[in-house]
């Protein structure tokens, strides 16, 4: 077994009962809420800041690029301040990013909005670098996927709520406003757009307060600090001659696997609505398809909560998920209309247990390298910024349906990692 809960961790868990799971669950809710708000910000800022479609999509670029740029600094921050303090720092940085939205809205300056998004992404990078490995090692390794599945449910519920809540505030009567703007003079139009831009001040002002309160609560919470510098005899022996994380092939392959997985997840969630319209389904119906993908993911997470490790190991769950991904992708290519769209929605089910399974497999046996390794894994989230545009390129060059063929090699690579890759470079003593 790669990792087991130390007596200190077990004692801390008993003292704080369910509190650690509840607290980290709240953090994963924040991840989902902030991340999925971007989908509403794109059309909102496109109108408020008078942007082209291409310019509007810099929202995702500014947000996700932080995972790449700040990944290593985030790892060093966690290594210096520890998991709990690192979470508090991440929340505070996110609050600063939300605060930047206020002057951005007052001046209606897109560049300042992008800076705010980058700072928010930076805070999330620190937060994810701390919380993902924390929930992974807060307990027995064989039940890590179960704990992360619980976190995934919190994340996706927030993801479903975020666009509804923010959209209700900032996009209220947006169709009527868009038509009205066409009839206004330059001066009148500027005043109307300024009023529209000001709508974001209240929700982001509330977010600032909530994030700062959460940062304070985390700092003074009963979350036990986990000392990853201490290694049990088996792990210590295996890592005797290790001086760098690049000496762990299973981790480096895990980063690559997480990168392509996140890309596949974002493709399944963000392209399904437009794909529905390409299958001659009205946008008034297709706009709900992303929620179908999220519901599929929640079903998968529930399966992980109740069935891992009782009925299936997290490694076997990853195998099944990868195979299911290949099968559903092929079915997408061979069917049409609602049946084909349903296959994309069900990819949420295939994707759901990948994140929970990849993390413990990639972090197994790392010991003192755990914190810096987690920063590399978080950098893998950049797959969500890089692979979807590649899908868009293929969709324009060929067709939206045939472009999904790119998912097959992605799922095959995940299948490789779930069967052989996670063992790379590890001795028999530390294999999961």
Automatic annotation (TrEMBL):
Topology with respect to the bilayer: Multi-pass membrane protein
GO CC, alphabetical: plasma membrane
Record keywords, A-Z: Cell membrane, Membrane, Transmembrane, Transmembrane helix
Keyword Nuclease (UniProt): no
Transmembrane segments: 21-44, 56-75, 87-106, 112-132, 153-174, 201-220, 251-268, 288-308, 317-338, 344-365, 372-391, 403-422
InterPro entries from the UniProt entry: Glc/Gal_transptr_bac, MFS, MFS_dom, MFS_trans_sf, MFS_TsgA-like
Domain Major facilitator superfamily (MFS) profile as annotated: residue spans: 20-426
MF-aspect GO terms: D-glucose transmembrane transporter activity; galactose transmembrane transporter activity
GO biological process: D-glucose transmembrane transport
Keyword Cell membrane listed: yes
Source superkingdom: Bacteria
Protein location: Cell inner membrane
PROSITE patterns xrefs: MFS
Membership in a protein family: Belongs to the major facilitator superfamily. FHS transporter (TC 2.A.1.7) family.
Function: Intake of glucose and galactose.
NCBIfam families reported in the protein's UniProt record: gluP (TIGR01272)
Record-given protein name: Glucose/galactose MFS transporter
Species whose genome carries this gene: Mucilaginibacter celer
